[in-house]
Amino acid sequence: MYYDIKEAKHIDRYKLEITFADGKRGIVDLEDYIKKGGVFKRFSDFNYFLKFYIDKELFVLSWPDGLDIAPESVYDKISEHVGSSV
Asked: Which Pfam families match (predicted)?
């Protein structure tokens, strides 16, 4: 599926460069997830955030304790910034 995450690279703070199966690539800033609270409050521990990886079966951005972010959410966050000055 085109939402499948193929590569994720740390850029700066909570910014990751993501490459999707359809070839789309962009930078996503996940810092605002901290404000969502709940399980994402864990991101306030920056060392925890840096433990991200791509689940090789589901192709989602994941963390060692089972937390993950739906790839379509990441895809949409990148789309929001395409063509913007942000």
From this structure: DUF2442
